[in-house]
Amino acid sequence: MIAPPAIELRGLTKRFGDTVALDHVDLVVRPGVVFGFLGRNGAGKTTALRILSGLAQPTAGTAHVLGHDVTGATDMVRAQIGFLPDVPGFYPWMTAREYLEFAGRLFELDRATIDARATSLLEMAGLATVTTKVGGFSRGMKQRLGIAQALINAPSLLMLDEPTSALDPIGRREVLEMIASLRGRTTVFFSTHILADVERVCDSVAILEAGRIVESADIAELTARASSNKLVVQVEGDGAAASLASELTGRTWLKSVEVAEQMVRMTVSDLPTAQREIPAAITAAGVALRRFEIEEGSLEDVFVELVGGPGQ
Amino acid sequence: MTGFGAFLRKELTEIRRTWRLWVIPGMLVFFGVTSPIIAALTPALVKSVAASQPGVVVRVPTPRALDAYAQFLKNLDQFMLIAVIIAGAGVVSGERGSGTAILALTKPLSRGAFVVAKILSQLALLVVATALGTAACQVMTGVIFGGTDVGRLVAAVGIWLLYATLLVVVMTLCSAAFRSRGAAAGAGLGFFFLTLMLANWGPTARYGFFGLWPAMSSALAGKELSLGWPVATAVIAIAVGTVAAVRVFERQEL
Fold first, then answer.
1. Number of folded domains in chain B?
2. Do B254 and A105 make contact, defined as CB atoms within 8 angstroms?
3. Would strands A263-268 and A254-260 be described as parallel, antiparallel, or unpaired?
4. SS3 A157
5. Given Cys at both, which of A146, B20, B26, B81 links A84, Cβ 3.0 to 4.6 Å?
6. Residues A75 and A101 in one domain
7. Is there a domain that residue A2 lies in?
C-alpha cells in the first residue's frame, strides 16, 4: 500500500476580506523528506501552516495532512503532528520539563514514556540543566523548547514556522542539525525566508510568492537548473574580456553578459549551442583562455529569478 | 472533549502556582473577617459623625449577627462580582493573546475541553474561596455577636454563588468572543448592571434568574423563598452560556 503524501494542498485559497493570503495553492510533500517552504515575509507561509495545523479554515480548496482532511478529522491529525508556531507561547510559571509533561499528557502518553522523552528532548534542546521558569527564558531558549514540545509525540509530520529566525548562529546550527537528523523518520515541513537554511538541510523546496507557489522541486533539481544556464569564461590580458563579450554580442542563445576584470559571466538559453560556439568566439576574438566552466548554481539564483528579489 | 483531564489539571495547577490563588480567596476571606467587625463598629461610627452635627440625634439599633451577614453579602454583591468579572475577562483572550492557546490547541485538545476546563477551574476556585470566606465570616460573627443563625447565611451565600457561577460562564463567553480583555470586561459589566436593573422589575425577578438578587436578602431575612423559576432559569442560562462559549471559540481562527 502506498503511503499518502505527508501534505497535499489542492487549490488552497485563503482570503481576509479583500486580501488574498493564499491563491489556489497546489503542493505535495512526500513522506520522510525535509521540505523547505520558502518565501519572503508576508508571502503566506504562516497562513498555510495555520490551516495545516487546524488553527484556521481555508476559504476554498482542500488541505490533507497524512491522508486526512484537516478541516474534518482534527484530533486524529493532531495526534500525528508536531507544530511550532513562529512565536511559541508558553505558560511562564512552568519549567521546561513541566511543559513537556503537560504536552505529553495531552497526547495521552503514559508516565514512563513522558519521562523518557522529556529527558531526551530537554537534552537535545540544551535545557536539561535549566531549572528556571519559562517566563525567564530568552527567545532562543523558548524556540528550542518549542521544537522539543513539537517532538514529544514522536510525530509523523513536524511543521515548523520560521524555526531558526530567533536563534543565534550556534543555536541555528543545532536546530538545523536536529532537523536534518529526522530525515527518513519524520517528514519535516518548515517555513523560512532564510535561503541558507533551506540549502543546508532540505531535500525539496516550494517557493511561495504573494500567496502563489511559483516553484516546487527537489533542491538538487533546482540548483542544477540554475547551473545549466550560467557560464563563466576567464581570459588573459587587458581588454580581453571586453573583446570576447563584444564578439559574443548578438548571439541568439545569449540572455545576458557581464564583464568583470578578466571574467566574462553569461546567462544562456541554450547551453549545448553556447558550449560549442564560445570556444570559436574566443579564437575569433584572439584572446587567451584561462578557464571556461559551467558556473555552479545556487538556490538564491533560482529565488531571485522567480521572486525578483533576494531572500536573506 | 479530547484532552479535558490534562488541561483541567493544568488550569488547577496554574491557580495554585500564580496570583489567581490569592486574589479571589484573599478578598473573600478579607470580607469574611472584616464584615462582622464593620457591622459591630457601625453604630459607634455613626454616633461619632452625628455628634459633630449640633442638634442631630441619631438612634442606631444595636447590631446583631444578621447585620454582620448583611454586610458580608453586600461586599459579595459589589466587590466580589466585579472581581469575578475582571478575573474572568482574560480567561480565554489572555491565552489567545499570549500564544499559549495555539500551542495547546494544535495538540489533541478540543476547543470544547479548553473552554469547559476554564469554566470548571474558575468555579472550583470560587466555591472553595466562598466556603473559606463564609467560614471566616461565621467564626468572626460568633466571636463578636455570640449566637448566630448560620442557616440563613449559607442559604444567602448559596444563592449568591449560583449567580456568581452564571457570571463566570458569561465572562468566559465574553472572553471567547472578544479579542481584547477590556472589551470582555466591558461586556461583563454591562451584563452585571442589566441583571441588577431587571432584578427590580417584578416579572423578570419572578420568572428569571434576575430574581436571585432579591432572593439573597430574603434568605438572610428568613422569609419564605420562591426560588423555582430563578434557579431553573439560572441553570438553563449557565448551560446555554457554556455551549455558546464553546461554539463561539470553535468558530474562531487562531
1. 1
2. no
3. antiparallel
4. strand
5. A146
6. yes
7. no
The pTM of the full predicted model, rounded to 2 decimals, is 0.85
CB contact under 8 A, B2 and A75: yes
Contacts of B190 (CB under 8 A, 6+ apart): none
Q: Which domain holds residue B64?
A: 4-251
- B99–A105: do the CB atoms touch at under 8 Å? no
Q: Are residues A212 and A235 in the same domain?
A: no
Residue to mutate among B4, B16, B21, B106, with most A CBs inside 10 A, is B106
A39 and A158 inside one domain: yes
H helical segments located in chain A: 45-52, 74-78, 96-106, 111-124, 139-150, 169-181, 195-201, 219-227, 240-248, 271-285, 299-307
What does the alpha-carbon distance between residue B112 and residue B99 come to, in Å, rounded to a whole number?
Answer: 18
Cell 485559497 belongs to which residue?
Answer: A13
pLDDT in tens, A194-248: 888 888 899 999 999 999 999 898 988 887 776 668 889 999 988 899 999 999 9
Domain assignment of residue A80, yes or no: yes
From chain A, pick out residues whose CB is under 8 angstroms from the CB of B253.
50, 55-57
Among B3, B5, B253, select the one facing A55 at the smallest CB separation. Answer: B253
DSSP of A106-120, one letter per residue?
Answer: HTT--HHHHHHHHHH
A-chain CB neighbours of B19 within 8 Å are none
Q: Which domain holds residue A165?
A: 7-218
In 10 A of CB B209, how many CB atoms?
25
* A174: CB partners within 8 A, 6+ apart: A126, A144
- pLDDT of amino acid A294: 85
Residue B110 DSSP SS3? coil
Task: Assign residue A104 the CATH number of its domain.
Answer: 3.40.50.300
Look up residue B224 and give its three cell numbers: 419564605
Any B CB within 8 A of A288 CB: no
Q: Which residues of chain B have pLDDT under 70?
A: none
